[in-house]
Amino acid sequence: MTIVYVEDAFDLSEIIRKYLTREGYQVHVFDTGEEALSMLDKSVDLWILDIMLKGEITGYDLIKKIKEKNPKQAIMFTSARDQDIDKIVGLELGSDDYLAKPFSPKELMLRVQAILRRTHPYAEGIIEYPPYLIDTNKRTITEDGMNIELTNKEFEMLQFFLNHPNTPLEREKILKQVWGDNYYGSDRVVDDLLRRLRQKMPDLKIETIYGFGYRML
């Protein structure tokens, strides 16, 4: 999963980055709101925003822009200021959690995991998607006791859809999630991969949004 951490205290951001990376998250760290704006068009599972930042864009400004662009993306606020005021304002703007400074990295990790479990219920464990039983830890799929073999990219695409049910997903977002930012080529590889996935799992309810992308129902 992808986490964006916006914090202008370098020592703290470096410590948290290492903890998050160790837990297997893909982490992008920025020390200004202006730099973090580059992630608005990306697929982000959680934003961790300090309220007071260098530059003209505050954490409050960022959450407004995130919610305008991607209203379903999860957000956590951190702040060393008066936590009652910040917590109320943050929640009113749509944040999922608030953590007052100073905090321990372990506490932040627990909060992160809790938010991702709430916002991505299919992110880990056993998923029942009749007639399929999907184990995201073992990366296995069975139908009536029979194994369905998926390639690594087919499974990553499937899990991306499962993590975003009823959400329109652009081809470009799917492309970056499955192939990474360094892939250069046609986004039609997304169509080809999905065609193979549908052949192996014909009961998946993934509809085509012509001219845009796909949505899992």
| End-to-end C-alpha gap | 21 Å
The beta-strand count equals 12
Strand pairing plus helix content: what structural class?
alpha/beta
Helix content: 40-55%
N-to-C SSE string, H for helix and E for strand:
EHEHEHEHEHEEEEHEHHEE
The tally of helices reads 8
List the helices and strands and how they pair.
Layout: E1 2-6, H1 10-22, E2 26-30, H2 33-36, E3 46-50, H3 59-69, E4 74-79, H4 83-93, E5 97-100, H5 105-119, E6 126-129, E7 132-135, E8 140-143, E9 146-147, H6 152-163, E10 169-170, H7 171-179, H8 188-200, E11 206-209, E12 213-216
Parallel strand pairs: 1-2, 1-3, 3-4, 4-5
Antiparallel strand pairs: 6-7, 7-8, 8-9, 10-12, 11-12
Description:
This protein is of the alpha/beta class and 217 residues long. It is 41% helix and 23% strand. It contains 8 helices and 12 strands. The strands form 3 sheets. It has a 5-stranded parallel beta sheet, with helices on both faces. A 4-stranded antiparallel beta sheet has the order 6-7-8-9, with no helix packed on it. A hairpin with a 4-residue loop joins β7 and β8. α6 crosses α8. The longest helix is centred in the middle third of the chain and has 15 residues. The chain is elongated. The two termini are 21 Å apart. The mean pLDDT is 87.
